[in-house]
Amino acid sequence: MNSPTMASTVVEAGQIDGSYLTDGFTIRSWLLTTDHKRIAVLYLASITMFFFIGGIAAALVRLNLIVPEGLLGSAEAYNRLFTMHGVVMVWFFLVPAVPVTLGNFLIPLMLGARDLAFPRLNLFSWYLFILGGAVTLWALFAGGVDTGWTFYTPLSTTYSKGHVVLAAVGIFIAGFSSIATGLNFIVSIHRLRAPGLTWYRMPVFLWSLYSLSVLLVLATPVLAITLLLVVLERIFHIGVFDPAIGGDPLLFQHLFWFYSHPAVYMMILPGFGVVSEIIPAFSRKRIFGYKFIVWASVSIAVISFFVWGHHMFVAGTSLYSAVLFSILSYLVAVPSAIKVFNWLGTMHKGYIRFDAPMLYALGFIGLFTIGGVTGLWVAALAADVHLTQTYFVVAHFHYIMVGGMVSAFFGGLHFWWSKITGRMYPEMWARVAALIMFIGFNLTFFPQFILGYLGMPRRYFSYAPEFQVLNVLSSAGATILAAAYLLPLAYLVWSLLYGEYAPANPWGATGLEWQTPSPPPTVNFIQTPLVTQGPYAYPPPETGRERHV
Amino acid sequence: MWHPIARLRSRPGGASDDPQDQEQAVHAQLNRLLRAWLLLVLLGGAEFAVSFLPLARPLRPLVMIPGVLMVVTVTVAFMELRRGPVLVRAFAVAAMLWLLVLLSLGSADPLTRTEFHVPNVQVK
Amino acid sequence: MSSTVVHDFQYESPSHQAQTAIAGMWLFLATEVLFFGGLILSWIYSRHWNQIGFDAGARETKLWIGTLNTGILITSSFTYAAGLAWIRAGNTRRLIQCITVTLMLGLAFLALKFGLEWRDDFSQHLFPAASIFKITGAEEGGARLFFIFYFISTGLHGVHMVVGVALLLWIIRRARRGEFSPLYHTPVHAVGLYWSFVDIVWLTLYPLIYLVGRG
């Protein structure tokens, strides 16, 4: 097969007429598309909507907490708001975000393929997502659920007056969307790599999404059966979680967290992948310790299944199982730490540029590290007895999810924006937004570490007066954070209409996706690329500067 | 955009060169399948019989063995796991491994929990 | 080379594509293992905390129907695999015959399970959510838990069987239109995997439901 080498697969602008965006202008061509790029755009619009719904719920939560007695006046309303925030953010933003937008768009491009292995399944997964989202929103707007996103029994099965069944059904449906996506990604990465693209020549992003997909396909089914059991128990007023007949409410927690702990890794692994692409590009340097990073992703995926009991230290499980889970939780921190060191090693003696994607990636490294280290504190049994169910835990996971994951999502969105839309975003505004986000985020969540340490419990609509100052600071930070999220919405939409047209490779980055025009044609590549070198093949530093070995 | 699956119709008379060979191949395969079926019936009988034996408590889990062997037989003989590509075997092994993790690590709690006995109350 | 590769077609060959589809089906079945796995964990917990009552409930199951159904499903897996062997040799007629027998066996299973067994269970007050339950006293809780597992697991399995029956009908329809050959029969292979998997699920449920507590 006479295929061009990677370097010469650049397609001249005049060779193809139009791009995937101009390949059909009817609504039908979008709603019935099987083009992974269009599906990614459909998903992008959907998760943006969910992000703002979850964000509004968060804003109302923070609004309530500016006075000790609770501004909204009602515990019931507060419970439904934080549940809405958690449910929407976890299942309809964090878990899907990077995989279904950036993953769907980039995986075939990075593989040198035309599309994913099962394009129609891909479209079906979007419809499942929309259906699940619609049912869940119906539940939330019909009055909501007060159980928290964790649906603990017996509150969810017996005592809650909220729309538990409807919410659970919505999440159940959305779960199948995740499974379908994960299945598609795994099979594609195994079967559709371009000639010469061996596993060790794949960008780290692909390894991260592969690891994520393993989590999606193996953990999500357990969530499905668990939600089904909750729904049945609620409908029939009897079930396996009911202690009155000898059932075990802790069984729910085991089943739930068997999924939900891997789920938090589902949320962060794609973020690792994005950062692993941005850092080399903006340091103009090969990633440090490629094999360590990729196997770290795989180990995180595997070990994440062994640690779920750390959410249940004070729930009444046996002490022996708690000790076991605590030790395993320390183990899972190791590969994450390896990644952080490798990113730093990549930047060391690199030629660093502080464009917006890099600012987000740098923010990610700092904030994720803080979140990760505080995770170690709560993984210690003795410390967790005091810190569990306080704002310390809330701050811990928000540092990872918002400080880490959302930053990574924005970083990736900016990094690949030109590839997806064919337009450049305004750099100055993007850097300003990144800075505002960093400030707003820390102002929102750092006080919460202190609040938790001082003993303020989570999920309470009112609190002791001595906590007010920190709560007000946190809520103030939330307003700044909101601005930081609205700003990109504004200038990114602006760029769609007025942004300058993007070249194929505005960053001068390596990777197959940069070898095709921005935006790509529907077929991605005119000829199947032939890969002859590893990823991140940046030229070595210029002579005259100290060579990095 | 649809990716049409290549549809290649068989040439009249069968795809292989010798219809006789093909005939034998099918019969050989059918024999293998029949033997697997027989094995399953035997294992089923064993499973049935063994479950009625009054075994001591620690030996009870042995009752699972015929059942496990039946599952393996179906997987190998009817689903042709050994014939397939490595990837497929990797998926099957992964599924079993993760099932084991769920069941064993999940059982760690009830097996080691200190039970505070509550007297059996009448269920309303 | 007997196959033509379209220049911009995503797969290297039809065989590459077929293997990809089969790999996808196996991965889907892996997800189903975890789905039913959660249910099995609930069996473990329910029985662990209430063994006497649980086993008492288990003894109320209709052993002859369960065992007969096990035999039916094992045989149906065999007949399907036979059909696959026939189409690999190019014999569509035999394929259709085998799949039809598989279909009959599947329908027999469903008739026995839902038409006969579940009906009997309801009339004997074994439905766990009913206020009047056949077993009372100290064993009632455990027995109810057993039947919760019983109805949920056989119900879910039944749903999978119904989907399987629909898939069998689809295969028969396509086979009658002459769409399968030794060179192309991927849907037959994939549905066969699904069908055997549903059989495996039953083989796992059968001892957990019918044989537990008999010793």
Structure commentary:
The complex is a heterotrimer of chains A (549), B (124) and C (215). Chain A is mostly helical and 549 residues long. Chain A has one domain: Up-down Bundle (Cytochrome C Oxidase, Chain A). In chain A, 65% of the residues lie in helices and 0% in strands. Chain A has 16 helices and no strands. In chain A, α2 packs antiparallel against α3 and α12 runs parallel beside α15. Chain A starts with 26 loop residues before the first helix and ends in a 51-residue tail after the last helix. The relative contact order of chain A is 0.12. By secondary structure, chain B is mostly helical. Among the domains of chain B are: 55 residues; 28 residues. In chain B, α1 runs antiparallel to α2. The N terminus of chain B is likely disordered. By secondary structure, chain C is mostly helical. In chain C, 77% of the residues lie in helices and 0% in strands. Chain C is built from 6 helices and no strands. In chain C, α2 crosses α5. The longest helix of chain C is centred in the last third of the chain and has 37 residues. Chains B and C meet through α1, α2 and α3 of B and α1, α3, α5 and α6 of C.
Summarize the model shown.
By secondary structure, chain A is mainly α. Helix content of chain A is 65%, strand content 0%. Chain A has helices at 27-31, 36-64, 75-94, 97-111, 119-141, 155-159, 164-191, 204-236, 249-283, 290-303, 319-347, 356-379, 381-387, 391-421, 427-454, 468-498.
